TrEMBL record, chains A, B:
CDD domains: PGDH (cd05288)
Gene3D superfamilies: Medium-chain alcohol dehydrogenases, catalytic domain, NAD(P)-binding Rossmann-like Domain
Protein name listed in UniProt: NADP-dependent oxidoreductase
Transmembrane regions listed in the UniProt entry: 118-136, 148-176
Amino acid sequence: MNTSINLKQRPVGTPTLDDFSLEELDDNFILKNGEMLLVSKYISVDPYLRGRMSDAKSYVPPFKVGEPISSGIVAKVLESKNENFKVGDFVYGLLQWKEKQVSNGEGLQKIDKSKAPLSAYLGIVGMTGLTAYLGLHEIGKPKQGETMVVSGAAGAVGSVVGQIGKILGLTVIGIAGTDEKIDMLKSDFGFDHGINYKTTKDMKAAIKEAAPNGVDVYFDNVGGPISDAVLFSINQFARIIICGAISVYNKTELPMAVAVQPFLVKNSALMQGFIVSNYADKFPVAIKQLATWLGEDKLIYRETIVEGFENTPQAFLDMMDGKNKGKMIVKV
Amino acid sequence: MNTSINLKQRPVGTPTLDDFSLEELDDNFILKNGEMLLVSKYISVDPYLRGRMSDAKSYVPPFKVGEPISSGIVAKVLESKNENFKVGDFVYGLLQWKEKQVSNGEGLQKIDKSKAPLSAYLGIVGMTGLTAYLGLHEIGKPKQGETMVVSGAAGAVGSVVGQIGKILGLTVIGIAGTDEKIDMLKSDFGFDHGINYKTTKDMKAAIKEAAPNGVDVYFDNVGGPISDAVLFSINQFARIIICGAISVYNKTELPMAVAVQPFLVKNSALMQGFIVSNYADKFPVAIKQLATWLGEDKLIYRETIVEGFENTPQAFLDMMDGKNKGKMIVKV
């Protein structure tokens, strides 16, 4: 017996459990040459998946209704007729939300359990770390002594961005939605300042106060009113990395915002959308750097691990709702 | 006797003639060593001056109330105690709105009447041409076969941008506000398509129709609803040059717009504010290229020339109102 989690219907606005279905599969796994049987161990749930649940044009094709969702998964090889993978190997790749599945190995990479915990390959030494590192390097181009603001700072990517900022000698200001998260940013991740956007009445003033010299780099995971407020503090030649816009993913109407154009032209500032997969040629260098910092204890990471395959949709919903601290992962 | 045009008060919203004053000056010009006496010949009126009339923080300091406005001016040397300039030379630089003024030559460059008409040094071989050329090259990075949209296309910068686009092998779509301007874009400047935003009900649909392969480069002179509409057609890796936001310069309230962040992240697109003075090291190469194209008749330019020094404020207001075709210039 096998189980999959499918997209039952396209969510309208905020997704609910009704948008997902658990399907019992009567799979009979007979491997062809080159194939292997995988058992899922850890499943990554990420904000970008919300986009794929809609059928709007985007950089990745939408999920199909009635078919399994897919995301980053760490799996173990149970059987193998593929000469590159042997039984007991662990692999990482974009796989379906199934307890077991067959793969020909395409797009999968073997991972080494001795170098980092398996779940870290979904986070700090996986897409999360790569997104933080490459977004900051390739677009943010930070220089020692500059000031950086990170929104969604307590999230998986945000917490890594802030730590890398500190390693590089920046003043780092994190924005998050609970006092507990703000404390964590400062005490655990070494952020210089934290702003709780849910309890702060005047975000514009709070950012100005935290960044008296203005903002040189803004790593934006959220969009919406928080990002509007940051605009008022940007410096000449500021760089704004648009890594996500979680605040609008569930919106059914076209979101309006403060017009960015006057701010960009006044400050010769740059704003660029960042999608990690466009920088695949830089992954090896970036992973090496992340692993080095991890080994030197310069980077720490948080995970919120939810147990049980069937809880994957709830984990996704909770992550969208900001209930995670650091990377949200399902342990199968 | 001499005359200056001063900023009488800071405009609120759309400027009016009341915001300017004409002052008779009882100047007695006695030159010190190194100085020269200049008589203004051509005065440039430009959208960016509106910003300097307010006291908001910007990339250039605000004009002072009660003092002369300044802009790009072509002047003739009447008397000289400066060894680098002799009587009869023509110079270009940032000068005050005065019929006559004394200068020590700092920031002025000699211009050659035989290479281009004097007024062209305020336009196609001056800041206008440089803005078009460098904005497009440095941020737009156009590639043959791509599609470009230009807003404010019948304006000084826009009409040059479109022509350079055609030289470089792009499909060029211009947006302007009268049918006469649209005709001019296509018949005189070689644009492939023109959209009259004042008579087009659904700009989003009109842009999609004119750019069936999507928009790779958007040279934005206007901001506002026109720029909102372009977002829906941008391609992956699109580059948006924010050269101006004339649609909001007169706004007293903070302008709202469609949130750009989701569009930028979905398309890995870039949006960057462009200010020509940041690229001064590239001026010589750019001027040479512009002059070459001009000599080869690959570039043509339009001027709206208003006669009379005292009409400079009205010329500025008319330019802000879109009454010019090409570069708006006052002949003193």
